[in-house]
Amino acid sequence: MSPVDRSDTPTGGAPDVRSPDGRGAEECTREQSLELLRQTAIGRLIHTDDAMPAVTPSCFTLDSLGEVVIPLPASWRADLMDGEVVGFQTDRFDEQTLRGWTVLVVGRSRLVTDPVKIAGLRHQGPLYWGHRPTRGYLSIHPELVTGRWFGS
């Protein structure tokens, strides 16, 4: 049974394994990592703000092309993020057992400009945090996808 098939617990059923390095972690394949992304709706956008590292909690969806799509707050200068290399991380952990998983996507971002796609996103989500209006949507093409299961 693959790790993504283990969905019978709140953590997604992280396997109880020990890796050769003794840290209790197991690498996921790209496909498993993308499937884990589909199991949650909140993560962290990793970007720069005035040339400084920044991490912003964000709702998201994984579109039919496998791209992470994030609604942008109306207060952001969305044009400054177009074409930038960004990261997106999401995870699910059980604090009592310390079991769970994390997935990191790194790729080039682009503003979503297709009116049909924007209309679909406004109708089906993801919602901006607090359900406020968005300035638009940012799409991240997953050039690098890494995931890990953590057991105890």
From TrEMBL:
Basic and acidic residues composition-biased segments: 18-28
Region (Disordered), start-end ranges: 1-28
InterPro entries the record matches: Pyridox_Oxase-rel, Split_barrel_FMN-bd
Domain of life of the source: Bacteria
Pfam families found in the cross-reference section: Pyridox_ox_2
Name of the protein in its database record: Pyridoxamine 5'-phosphate oxidase family protein
Organism: Kitasatospora herbaricolor
